[in-house]
Automatic annotation (TrEMBL):
Residues 22-116, 121-220, 224-305, 310-392, 396-499 form the Ig-like domain. Residues 547-632 are annotated as: Disordered. It comes from Ailuropoda melanoleuca. This is Kin of IRRE-like protein 2. Homodimer. Interacts with NPHS2/podocin (via the C-terminus). Interacts with NPHS1 (via the Ig-like domains). Interacts with FYN. It is a single-pass type I membrane protein. It holds the Pfam family C2-set_2. The chain crosses the membrane at residues 509-532. Residues 570-584 have a biased composition (Basic and acidic residues). Belongs to the immunoglobulin superfamily. It is found in: Cell membrane. The keyword Phosphoprotein applies. May regulate basal insulin secretion.
Length: 632
């Protein structure tokens, strides 16, 4: 008996000396097996035909291949080729241990292999299931629990329509001795009416059962009304009729309706339908419908698309800016659709800008005036219009000489200038050689300044300043009078000259007209008398002075016609009121009075009738009697 083992040892040593020592061709690895399934731990040896055994947590299972005493364990494989695999079936929790493959006669041990036994989780339980009653809008928690000895601890997940839900919390309870542990997951949600009848799934999943086990529940909700509000038609013209329809679903059923417009109740409106006549207010004041039931109420509102013409909301404000600065006007028009707004100058059709704002950079005096913000009428043809605002450009004064009528020597005179200024001028001053005057009187001079009847739009204050001269002198016609004005932005002025007026041409014209008229009158009278006497020449006209009254002149100068003879008393005078142009106003009528060298009378000699035999008159000299006043 001792001889056989010695021979084997000797053979092993000889082979080892020859380089063919026993060795592992395959060693077992850690293994995970499901409870009730089969587990296989591989082991293969080379150059070894001796005894092979397996150990469990250090305990030898035996050297026989059927492993007596271990009913679920056996060694399988071709022993001649060195295959010695350990099989376990069915795997139980007690099989979870560390296993080694050993070649005892060669003194070889494999690395330890850990067998892990997994236990699939059981189907979880949802508290309150399978039908959970909730109230819409009220936060609620759904609890899912998993009991048992599942290994590893399962993961609990929530799903709806195959989509994983968030908002869960996870809690694990450790098992006490002699009991099993549990895990639970809480889903926090605030259900809505759309969740009524929805199906939620709680799934317990682990490595032992990756697909997991599901438990489904159905939600049963009580909820306040879910409201939909519509208008027909949704887009209307102002003045058209619109019908609103309020529809609702609710659990429990609807108990009442209430209508409002812009937050104010619509009196007398009950039920799911409302009919109104649309106006512009519906665009900004929506119509709302509130529906109630035993759980609560819900409100929906809608605004109509009411189309109406432009309505002015904000007028452009007048502006006053200094020259060189920027000016900006703005105006606001309301309309649907939004009206097209344009800007132009008053009286000019040229469009300067579009939109609610007009910007004028670096304005000058030429930019002063009225600007118009205009909105075009809407689709209905109603509304629209224009609004004006004035731009006043502050600049140095503009001084212009006005027409001043010529004056008579030693008579009154009036010089005028026109001043535009913004801001208003501090003073308007008249100056000449020996002095100046801004207001009041000084010697022969008097200054008056007053507002002009009409100013230039946007150029500020318009003033007319008048310099009155009483008793003009020769020097007044040769000198220049300066009218100047100043404000905070500068000073400007203009020179005004006084024109002279002579009476001599007027007197000559009047005398010529009077002589012609007298001659014509004498011829007419002579013919008339001749016909009246039927050719009788018995009467003779007494010699008399035939005097014609000629209007005198107020300038004190007159002239005598070349064919007139001076007659009459030197004490007679003929006063005249001299009328000038409309812009010349004399302070006194007839301020000048001078002696007419002819005393306003002209002697008219008689006319000798012809001596023809056919004449109606005798050849005696005839003089026309009487004094004739020519019409003025």
């Amino acid at each position: 008996r001792m001889l056989v083992p010695a021979l084997l040892i000797l053979l092993f040593c000889l082979r080892g000396h020859a380089g063919l020592s026993p060795h592992f061709l395959q060693q077992p690895d850690d293994l995970v097996a499901l409870l009730g399934e089969e587990a296989r731990l591989p082991c293969a040896l080379g150059e070894y035909w001796g005894l092979v055994q397996w150990t469990k947590d250090g305990l030898a299972l035996g050297g026989e291949r059927d492993l007596p005493g271990w009913s679920r364990y056996w060694i399988s494989g071709n022993a001649a080729s060195g295959q010695h695999d350990l099989y376990i079936k069915p795997v139980e929790l007690e099989d979870q241990a560390s296993y080694e493959c050993q070649a005892t006669q060669a003194g070889l041990r494999s690395r330890p292999a850990q067998l892990h036994v997994l236990v699939p989780p059981e189907a979880p339980q949802v508290l309150g299931g399978p039908c959970v009653s909730l109230v819409a809008g009220v936060p609620a928690n759904l609890t899912c629990r998993s009991h048992g000895d599942a290994r590893p601890t399962p993961e609990l997940l929530w799903f709806r329509d195959g989509i994983r839900l968030d908002g869960t919390t996870f809690h694990q309870t450790l098992p006490k001795e002699g009991t099993t542990g549990s895990v639970e997951s809480i889903l926090s949600l605030t259900p809505s009416s759309h969740d009524d009848g929805a199906t939620l799934v709680c799934r317990a999943r682990s490595q032992a059962l990756p697909s997991g086990k599901d438990t489904a529940i159905t939600l049963s909700l009580q909820y306040p009304p879910v409201v939909t509000l519509s208008a027909e038609p949704q887009t209307v013209l102002e003045g058209e009729t619109v019908t609103f329809l309020c529809q609702a679903t609710a659990q429990p059923p609807v108990t009442g309706y209430r209508w409002a417009k812009g937050g104010s109740p619509v009196l007398g409106a009950r039920g799911p339908m409302l009919e109104v006549v649309a106006d512009a207010s519906f665009l900004t004041e929506p119509v709302s419908c509130e529906v109630s039931n035993a759980v609560g109420s819900a409100n929906r509102s809608t605004a109509l698309d009411v189309q109406f013409g432009p309505v002015l909301q904000a007028r452009p404000e007048p502006l006053s800016v200094d020259v060189g600065e920027d000016a900006s006007f703005s105006c606001a028009w309301r309309g649907n659709p939004l009206p097209r707004v344009t800007w132009s100058r008053s009286g000019d059709a040229q469009v300067l800008a579009s939109g609610p704002t007009l910007r004028l950079p670096s304005v000058g005096p030429e930019d002063a005036g009225d600007y118009v913000c205009r909105a075009e009428p809407g689709l209905s043809g109603l509304g629209g219009g224009a609004a004006e605002a004035r731009l006043t450009v502050n600049a140095p004064p503009i001084v212009t000489a006005l027409h001043s009528a010529p004056a008579f020597l030693r008579g009154p005179a009036r010089l005028q200038c026109l001043v535009f200024a913004s801001p208003a001028p501090d003073a308007v001053v008249w100056s000449w050689d020996e002095g100046f005057l801004a207001a009041g009187s000084q010697g022969r001079f008097l200054v008056e300044t007053f507002p002009a009847p009409e100013g230039r739009g946007g150029q500020g204050t318009a003033l007319i300043s008048v310099l009155h001269i009483s008793g003009t002198q020769e020097s007044d016609f040769s000198r220049g009078f300066n009218c100047s004005a100043r404000n905070r932005l500068g000073e400007a002025g203009t020179q005004v000259s006084l024109g002279r007026r002579d009476l001599l041409p007027t007197v000559r014209i009047v005398a010529g007209v009077a002589a012609a008229a007298m001659t014509l009158l004498m011829v007419i009278i002579g013919v008339t008398l001749c016909c009246w006497h039927h050719g009788k020449v018995s009467a003779s006209f007494p010699k008399q002075k035939n005097l014609v009254r000629i209007p005198g002149s107020s300038d004190g100068s007159s002239s005598q016609g070349p064919e007139e003879e001076e007659t009459g008393s030197g004490e007679d005078r003929g006063p005249i009121v001299h009328k000038e142009h409309s812009d010349l106003v004399l302070d006194e009528e007839g301020a000048l009075e001078s002696k007419d060298p002819t005393n306003g009378y002209y002697k008219v000699r008689g006319v000798s009738p012809p001596t023809s035999p056919d004449s109606c008159m005798t050849p005696h000299q005839v003089k026309s009697p009487g004094i004739f006043n020519l019409p003025q």
